[in-house]
Write a structure and sequence with these properties.
This protein has helices at residues 8-15, 28-35, 38-43, 52-62, 113-124, 142-150; strands spanning 20-22, 71-77, 83-92, 97-104, 132-138, 155-156, 163-167. By secondary structure, the protein is an alpha+beta fold. The chain has a seven-stranded mixed β-sheet with strand order 1-2-3-4-5-7-6, with helices on one face.
Length: 174
Amino acid sequence: MTEAQPIASLLGDTTGDAGLRTWRVGDAPALLAAWNDPEIARWNGVPPEPSVELATKWLTGASRQTTGSPSVDVVLVDDSDEILGEIGFVIDRQRQVAEVGFWVGGAHRRRGVGSRLLTAARQLAPALELERAFAISETENEAAIALLGACGWPEVATTTSKRRAFLLPAPKPA
Ligand SMILES: CC(C)(COP(=O)(O)OP(=O)(O)OC[C@H]1O[C@@H](n2cnc3c(N)ncnc32)[C@H](O)[C@@H]1OP(=O)(O)O)[C@@H](O)C(=O)NCCC(=O)NCCS
């Protein structure tokens, strides 16, 4: 693997999206709000007892992520730096395979934020040197499955009827 770079150094160049940035320790209230969002808590892994302290601890790690980290998470913000949503990779470095996770804050859904996050994942993936990445959704998560379909992520077979898997496509041509 090439030398690890801070994620922040990639965002301007690889995504061309000024609204993407890394998490900061000061984002604890926004992260806590996301953990307390019922839809995010239902479909994404969130701590059983969310708190500002826990959010601050998690953010301290996330703010130091590099292209070599086992997890890479970035947020999409609006003009006033409000966090609209997150896209993240959980990476198995040995296999160079990742699972892509994402969420959009409750007040910002159905405005194209999820689509922008999935595009950002496609643009970021090459810098993470992955062989493949997948988004895996519970079968009942109609919004996530509709979003992945709308964004053209091809579905691949799983060994369970409880979850559906979608392959991260190649980066969008500039
Ligand atoms: C799934 C989620 C990320 C979608 O984000 P979003 O910003 O609302 O998605 P977009 O606005 O980009 O939607 C793009 C398209 O996806 C489809 N879509 C998105 N949400 C949908 C929903 N609730 N029902 C049906 N289709 C939906 C539509 O085709 C939509 O286009 P349209 O709005 O023009 O009809 C959001 O609902 C969310 O955060 N849910 C909770 C967390 C979660 O489920 N994470 C995924 C775990 S696998």
